[in-house]
Amino acid sequence: MDIQNVQNLLKNSNNRLNIIHDDNIIGNLNETQICDLIVNYLDDDEKMAILHNVSFFEKHNLQISHIKKIVLSISDLNRDFLLYDTTLFAHDLHLKKSDIAEFIQSLDDNKSKFLLFELYNFSNFNLFDLIKNMDDSSKTNLLLQSTSIEKFDKINILISFSNIEALIDFFNNNHDFFVENNIFLYEVVSNLGEAYQQEFVSLIDTINLTPNEKKEIFVILKDTVKQTIDTNALPEEYKTALTLPTSTFILELLEKSYKTSELINKIDIDFNRNLEDYRGLDNLIILEPEKYNDEERAKSIELCGICPNLKVVNFIKDLTPVSTAEEYVKAEGWINEVLNLLKPEYSNAQKIAIIDSVIGEFISYSPDFDTEVFNHQDCRSIWKIICSCYGVCNGIAAVEKYLFDRIGIESKIVCSKNHAFLKLINIELSFSNGEIKKGNTIIDPTWNLAAHRFHGKPNLFCIDYETARLRDIDPDGTDSLCHQNGLALYDINLSLDDLSLRKLFQSVHLVDENGVFPLYHLATKSKQIHSKFSNDSLHDVCQQFILLSNYYPQFATCPDSSMRILEHVLLNSENLKFKKCIINRVYNKKDKNKTPVLYVYIDFDDFGKRFFYADYASEKSQFIQLGQDDFTSRFECYEEDLKKTNGLRPWEISETDKTKTDLSKGSGKVVVAGGEER
Fold it and tell me: Are 543 and 533 in contact (CB under 8 A)?
């Protein structure tokens, strides 16, 4: 049937839906003709019924453009009602957010626009296009009532107010909104056009601003606006603010596994001017100490006393982790203590040995890594890591590189797929055969942490690429690929042999006169205990725990490194008879912060299941034994850990498993066997 006949049928029918669904009637029509029939001859109810029949669109090859035409042909009231069916629009019809936004924008009722905006959660969408036609009252309601709009979009709404008076009224009447959303008025003003900025400044005395807030606004004004201001009547502090140059800064952070970027204003600090000029402008100050020389660093610490709420950043592969001024000052104090250990007569290799060792003794791998409470940001901030003593691989590498930079040792952070370490450049090394060689080599401060914590031999200290890659491969042949990056490491040509390494560490008194690392004595004592209690595994284990506590009283505060020493040394003996041994972390159910607690679960052949947790409440850490009921009532596994085992806790899994290790997410092996024990 041709289009003319179908149109005549629809005009005279009381059951138009049956006609549209009858293939004998519309089977010869193309998709555009079918769409036009729906738009021009069906009422709203019939159109909405068609929209809910997704198979109809698939059958007749109707596209998104046809769906949009049908939806926009529905009356405003019914279109408003229809849009509340989020399943239909977001799922069944496979519409993009931009399409849905177009429908919402087409509505007359601003209140409905706001409610639908919330319903579809347009937090990552171009909000300005959605609300640009709203009046100021509707925009105010949107700002005050919405819980899903991001900060950047809220600023965009504020700058879209119809005039400056409306913006000022909003600020004066809703000051709490700015505090709760961490929005500063200067951030809004900086995004205004030149004419609006000039008008804003002319009305600045009508705004409920503190002197510091006024200074912030004068600082961020466009240069062309600053030049138009009559400074004769301005207080000196505002005149000074007008002279401070600014620039934009991209702050890139990690939120869980997602990177977020924020473009912010900052003052370009001149350490040669009076630092008092910056007082009260903390929000606009970002320190970048990795770029500073010694004099600038000293001035930056002085500035922290004047502006205690400024930000301090470092740079890690397109990230800018943030520290506080207090953390920066405290961490720099520790760094200076470390650098004071380096005698002028020491070679660079000796300085590297000391720095790598001190970092290992002081910093531990973040024990809550890969849990629901893990902070992806703090563990990568140089000065936060030093203050908390916890970090992850790229953060720990950044700490060590920062110390190397301070003393003129060139290094570069190298990343593999799941790990980060350092490449030392143009380093001169002395070998036991008397040779002195200069070149590039690898050092992995993260995988050396556990060895240094317990004064053992670091296994990834000045090695070549081949040796580093061999360390990636477990005894079962599994390759973690942690050091795989041939493009960055093609020119590695130096690797210290065992005797040369021991001589280097002996020269800075990190081993005894025979080249023996102190860990050897712990390992020897451990073997003696294993031998003494070869027929009593439970007593053996308990004595190993006491040995650890006596050797390192604060072992509970560095759970990851302690896991390694337990797994690779103290509980690594054929004399121990058990079906299963798990060394991991849990948290106390009463602890809202879910602080990691080191625990050991062992299913003994003779003594059954036993649970031990590391108690660090006292000055001296100790393992406390609990029965299963007491342990499980007090402690719980992290959600992220349970996901890896299909919701089963280690003691609920029947398979035999002596150890559980992922060295790509930890502080490395502690080796004291096969000739390396001394």
Answer: yes
d(CA 621, CA 556): 6
Q: Where is the domain boundary, 508, 535, 566? A: 508
Q: Domain with 357 in it: what CATH number? A: 3.10.620
Element holding 198 (H helix, E strand): helix 194-202
User: Rounded CA gap, 168 and 178, in Å?
Assistant: 12
- Paired strand residues for 586: 597
Give the Cα separation of 525 and 322 in Å (integer): 44
Residue position matching structure tokens 């890969």: 370
HSE-CB at 302 with a 13 A cutoff on CA atoms is: 15
Give the phi and the psi of residue 430 in degrees, each rounded to 5.
-100, 135
Q: Identify which of 403, 409, 437, 402 has the alpha carbon closest to the alpha carbon of residue 425.
A: 409
Name residues whose C-beta falls within 8 Å of residue 595's C-beta, 6 or more positions apart in sequence. Answer: 368, 587, 588
State residue 670's pLDDT score. Answer: 79
Per-residue confidence (pLDDT) for residue 165, from 0 to 100: 95
pLDDT < 50 regions, the chain: 124, 658-660, 673-678
Q: What percent of the chain has pLDDT over 90?
A: 70
pLDDT score at 673? 47
Q: Dihedral sign for Cα 557, 563, 569, 572, please.
A: positive
Q: Which two tokens stand for residue 632?
A: 């499980």
Confidence at residue 657, expressed as pLDDT on a 0 to 100 scale: 52
What is the rounded (10 degree) CA torsion for 330, 336, 339, 341? -100
493 plus 602 within the same structural domain:
no
The total number of structural domains in the chain stands at: 2
Distance (Å, rounded) from C-alpha 553 to C-alpha 551?
A: 6
The first and second tokens of residue 155, run together, are 């600023």
Nearest-angstrom CA–CA distance, 547 and 120: 59
Segment holding 57, helix H or strand E: helix 54-59
